[in-house]
Amino acid sequence: MSLGQANVNPLEVSSGDDCISIVSGSENVRATGITCGPGHGISIGSLGANNSEAYVSNVVVNKATLIGTTNGVRIKTWQGGHGVAKNIIFQDIIMKNVTNPIIINQDYCDRVESCPQQKSAVQVSNVLYKNIQGTSSRPVAVKFECSKSIPCQGISMQNVKLVDQTQQDVVSTASCSNVKLDTKGHVGNAVTDDYHDYIGTFEYWWNHGLISDSTYHQLKTACYSVSSQHPSLQCMEALRSAELEQGNIDPYSIFTKPCNNTVQLKSFLKGRYPWMSRAYDPCTERYSNVYFNRVEVQKALHVNVTRLSYPWKSCSDIVGNYWTDSPVSMLPIYRELITAGLKIWVFSGDTDAVVPITATRYSIDALKLATITNWYPWYDHGKVGGWSQVYKGLTLVTVTGAGHEVPLHRPRQAFIIFRSFLENKPMPMS
């Protein structure tokens, strides 16, 4: 069955070909309640045969069931074609033993031998797969085979769960070629460059009274010329001195109480600081360790299927001790991404002593970016929420009173940052 412009109501289709084929010229098509099988599934296309132009837009396939079909929901376009297939939604779909449940084939070829690669193709863009569940007869359930010259873009998947028909506790995998992601760039508390991070971190410790003058001098002398992954013995000694001088603080949020889960401390805090029982909880990392080691949580996340003999930890000493390929600097990557036009925001809490704002500012300054908007306070309901500066290719935002995990310490201000970023607006100036 081929569709042009139509609404298709509940229908059962068995076929030796596509159960439904949405062809060129189709616009504002809504297919609801289709049951397909056997057959080749529900297809958009094939489009662009014999180097022709093809256009399909505003298609919704909703509440379909596919049983034993070769394909599930498919977009297929011929090599050498022109035009566009856009604004397509596949949602609320059940797959039962489908060979290729989700597939985009942008270089469609119906010959046994491969078709020659051509530079033109029908553009596939803005496709949403939502609430799709069921079983696949093959381990790879999702295939995006897009054109190298005209890659797919704007592909989004939400709540897609497809498992292997023969091993239904095993989640199927995906294969992806030449898909252009709608990349966003939001970097929080970024370790950026060893040299500048050292300068800014040690300066922050000293300026906030966390270390002595002598240790500050020792850190500057011993550490500036070494990598954070391979510090010298002299640098390690200076860092140990700094740790001892800082004492029992939470370095991720220097003005909050450290986690000490004793009954005496709980009683003390509730007695002298009653607001602490409903404010920031410094023991969140402990809760994370407990939560993510629960069997039902790991099963829901499809992790630790081999049942490792050791527990999950939020920060692994094993990884930290043996991870040796950390780059000395990410500044070349920033320059590459900025040149490519990626939108980048870097945000930092100003009470974080682990990746402090001073370190981030030194690293950004090393990029030598032109300033678009000078340093200014941004506001939340008339109160200063932090400060911001807009550079050519990068925006820096600070959050006053926030530690390393900005959304944990200042959730409202974090929301304002993310909202401004997504709306492509600067931080509010009033």
TrEMBL record:
Keywords from UniProt, A to Z, are: Carboxypeptidase, Cell wall, Cell wall biogenesis/degradation, Disulfide bond, Glycoprotein, Glycosidase, Hydrolase, Protease, Secreted
The UniProt entry, under PROSITE patterns, shows:
CARBOXYPEPT_SER_HIS, POLYGALACTURONASE, RCC1_2
Q: Name one GO molecular function term.
A: polygalacturonase activity
Its recorded name reads Uncharacterized protein
Q: Where is the active site?
A: 40
Gene3D superfamilies this protein is in?
3.40.50.11320, 6.10.250.940, Single-stranded right-handed beta-helix, Pectin lyase-like (2.160.20.10)
One BP annotation, GO: carbohydrate metabolic process
- Give the family per the record: Belongs to the peptidase S10 family. Belongs to the glycosyl hydrolase 28 family.
